[in-house]
Specification:
The protein is of the alpha+beta class and 293 residues long. The chain contains 6 helices and 16 strands. It has helices at 29-47, 99-107, 140-156, 182-199, 250-254, 266-276; strands at 4-7, 10-13, 20-22, 27-28, 51-56, 66-68, 81-84, 91-95, 110-114, 124-134, 162-165, 171-181, 204-205, 217-220, 230-231, 247-248.
Amino acid sequence: MTPITEVEGRRLALSNLEKVLYPATGFTKGEVLHYYATTAPVLLPHLRDRPVSFLRYPDGPDGQQFFAKNVPPGTPDWVTTAEVPRMEGPARMVLVQDLASLMWAANLVTEFHTPQWVITAPGEADRLVFDLDPGSPASVVECCEVALWLRERLAADGIEAYAKTSGSKGLHLAAAVRRVSSERATEYAKELAVEAERAMPRLVVHRMTKSLRPGKVFVDWSQNAARKTTAAPYTLRARAEPLVSAPVTWEEVAECRDPGSLTFRAPDLAPRLQDFGDLLAPLLDPRTATALP
């Protein structure tokens, strides 16, 4: 029988709690739900007011994976949804605004992905992002070198960047910006990616062409496009182990010599939050937002 749990006055049916979702470590669905419940205080502010795309993997990372952007069938009527403009016509998407909605969504077994804008201003970026993706044999170690260069370059324009692991092989940089069209944010990010390639031609590539990427770091500037989404801070990823897209300090980035030093699993987050709090909290403060040049 599926247990019924009450979360903030909402009744939720949480299913298959003993199901192993990450066979490499034996991490179960119940542990996934526990992770999201305990991480909610820092995760929810980064999701709030942003339409969520779900990467669902109900049978674990080795099973079927699929993106769900539209409101899933069976969504409770108390889950907030909103109409979102798209090129092919408006669509209705989920907004994860509270703990009950987070637990409902987590029960579907999902990664959480969000755009760089909020629902009140679709297509007006309030975030700038760079997705640093290493081509083998490069790793997150090389991503850190590129991240440090980008941090300095952004600082030259008065923009303060923050880092998190992608939860996979790479690194994400994010900065709070005063609202600007997604087109301008994308243009600016591309300009910096091109500059990075010129400064570090043996290490950086700004084009997605796969033949150019072995041994280099692809600086993906396109994540700033209005239609694109990026893995949210603290989301679990559909990988062999319960890896997390975890905020990191710049000291950790500068000292990274081994990919394992920037690999974080769900059980690692509670002590990190106790030590550091939310390292990305400044992104939520409008006073930190900087105008693009």
